[in-house]
Design goal:
By secondary structure, this protein is mostly helical. The protein has 18 helices and three strands. A hairpin with a 3-residue loop joins strand 1 and strand 2. Helix 2 runs parallel beside helix 3, helix 5 packs across helix 9 and helix 11 packs across helix 16. The two termini are 44 Å apart.
């Protein structure tokens, strides 16, 4: 009799462990930050009357489940599946953890809900393609591109993003996809230099491939490091850097093929700071919606993404360009990020959706893509130009690279400070009736 009870306990632990491993690895794959994965998994184990120890690594996780008396345990190692970023799944899996606790859901019902959530259809890929193209055209406008540049960037994104969709569906390696798409998009972007001469040719080329910049992994990486999950944070940042290098390789192919060297960047004067700030915020709002759709957030979060991006980017622009006391881009980005995070928490509580599902996409228009592009351009020039120019471009490379990192850290830390201050509210917003 006692042996049968031990076998039953081990079988129960095994079944629960397999479920929790699948649950946690899915959250990791769809872009949840490490803290949310741990909190949700512990919550679900508690709903089953069990204790869990969870170790999350970049590509795998190890989970050990103990019974209530800690007399028996079961350990399982699970590889993280390859699933595209999906904030809607993130939200619904977070809701499932609260439902499991509040409703004491049986394990078969939790499995059924988990599979149903993962199998839900994403937004139409044609809608995503169109909105991403419009978003990158607006991104071009945020860097002072004119209408000609916006049209060229729209076409470059349309072609490049469509190619990305097709290659990804065929299982092509992600790094190769980024190289090919960056090359194809910049080949379209360089037409402004070759044929149109619209006046902001450098912006056409520089923003034609910015839809590829891995903004969400960069933001998640910084957040994990700040939240003391350093290993996962460094891994996410390293993966994002690999993707940026692939973008640089694709750009280098175009630059070398046509001998383009855009060493000067267009600067458009905007005398009316109020009108310019409003216009900047509106273009950022459209860009945020387009970039957000790529990560498949809940539809009710899209308008909030637009509002937060409008406020955040508008605040940053005003702080940087007001005549009384202009801020540098790092300080302005940190303040703008703080505004986004401060607004994200009450909106998250209102629509019962994790704050990062709309806070992170609203930060994407502030990702310093042009500074990253300049750093890549400088790196190319270090290799291509004669030795007497080497030190000049080494200095420029470190300047632009440092600004890229500081702006990223500034805006992300600013955004997550309110989320950490209101930690309990931020991580319980998906609880029904909360």
């Amino acid at each position: 009799m006692q042996q049968q009870q031990v076998q039953d306990t081990h079988q129960r632990l095994k079944e629960a462990t397999l479920f929790l491993a699948e649950y946690a690895s899915t959250l990791m794959a769809v872009g949840a930050q490490t803290s949310r994965i741990q909190l949700n998994t512990v919550r679900m184990a508690r709903a089953m009357g069990l204790h869990v120890n969870l170790l999350i690594f970049p590509q795998t996780l190890s989970i050990t489940l103990h019974d209530a008396d800690r007399a028996h345990s079961y350990t399982y190692i699970k590889k993280t599946p390859h699933i595209p970023l999906n904030f809607n799944v993130n939200m619904k899996l977070s809701q499932l953890s609260w439902d499991a606790l509040d409703q004491r859901l049986p394990l078969p019902e939790m499995w059924r809900r988990l599979r149903a959530i993962v199998e839900e259809r994403r937004e139409s890929r044609w809608l995503v393609l169109l909105l991403a193209s419009v978003a990158n055209a607006c991104f071009c406008r945020l860097f002072d591109g004119n209408l000609t540049s916006m049209a060229i960037v729209f076409a470059a994104t349309l072609v490049g993003f469509f190619l990305r969709q097709q290659l990804t569906r065929r299982g092509v390696n992600q790094l190769a996809v980024f190289v090919v798409c960056a090359f194809v998009s910049t080949m379209v972007g360089v037409t402004d230099f070759l044929f149109f001469h619209g006046g902001t040719e450098d912006i056409s080329l520089g923003t034609s491939m910015l839809y590829l910049v891995p903004g969400v992994p960069l933001i998640n990486g910084v957040m994990d490091i700040v939240d003391h999950h350093v290993l996962n944070g460094i891994s996410r940042l390293a993966n994002a850097m690999l993707l940026i290098i692939c973008i640089a390789i694709g750009l280098s192919g175009t630059v070398i093929a046509f001998g383009i060297d855009p060493t000067t960047f267009t600067a458009v004067a905007r005398p009316d700071i109020v009108t310019a700030t409003i216009a900047d915020g509106l273009f950022a709002a459209v860009a945020a919606i387009g970039f957000a759709v790529i990560s498949n957030p809940p539809r009710r979060a899209l308008l909030i993404c637009a509002l937060l991006a409008c406020v955040g980017h508008g605040v940053r622009y005003f702080l940087m360009h007001n005549g009384a006391m202009p801020f540098d881009i790092v300080a302005a980005s940190a303040i703008a990020g703080f505004m986004v995070g401060l607004l994200a928490v009450p909106f998250a509580m209102r629509i019962h959706c994790p704050a990062e599902c709309f806070a992170f996409p609203s930060l994407l228009p502030m990702v310093p893509g042009m500074f990253a592009y300049k750093a890549v351009r400088d790196l190319i020039n270090i290799v291509r130009l004669p030795d007497e120019y080497t030190m000049e471009y080494v200095a420029r490379f470190f300047h632009n690279g440092s600004l890229t990192l500081l702006v990223m850290f500034g805006m992300v830390v600013g955004c997550i400070v309110p989320i950490f201050i209101f930690h309990r509210q931020s991580f319980s917003v998906t609880r029904h009736g909360n």
